[in-house]
UniProtKB/TrEMBL annotation:
PANTHER family to which the protein is assigned, alphabetical: RIBOSOMAL PROTEIN L25/GLN-TRNA SYNTHETASE, ANTI-CODON-BINDING DOMAIN-CONTAINING PROTEIN, RIBOSOMAL PROTEIN L25_GLN-TRNA SYNTHETASE, ANTI-CODON-BINDING DOMAIN-CONTAINING PROTEIN
Keyword set, alphabetical order: Ribonucleoprotein, Ribosomal protein, RNA-binding, rRNA-binding
Protein name, as recorded: Large ribosomal subunit protein bL25
GO CC annotation: ribosome
Species for this entry: Chromobacterium piscinae
NCBIfam families: bL25_bact_ctc, PRK05943.1
Quaternary structure note: Part of the 50S ribosomal subunit; part of the 5S rRNA/L5/L18/L25 subcomplex. Contacts the 5S rRNA. Binds to the 5S rRNA independently of L5 and L18.
Amino acid sequence: MSFELIASKRVDLGTGASRRLRHAGQVPAVVYGAGKEAVSLVLDHNTMYYALKNESFHASVLELVIDGQKEQVKVAAFQMHPYKQQVMHIDFTRV
């Protein structure tokens, strides 16, 4: 099974910016590894929430489309809200 995620780069960084993203129905994320610079991203919340419910999503190599450029990544870590059904943050590692 293959997964393709659409993301865009973040310009506003920090706690306040992340909170504004979450209130707007988006998830802050970061992609790092492979000797390249880390890139801060923003993804759609509902897409990520339902993808994380799928077991094969965690073990698959994903296609991450960042502003039109494709990268192969894996999920390194993710954080969920303690009692809400909300994804707080996701880390991706380049393959």
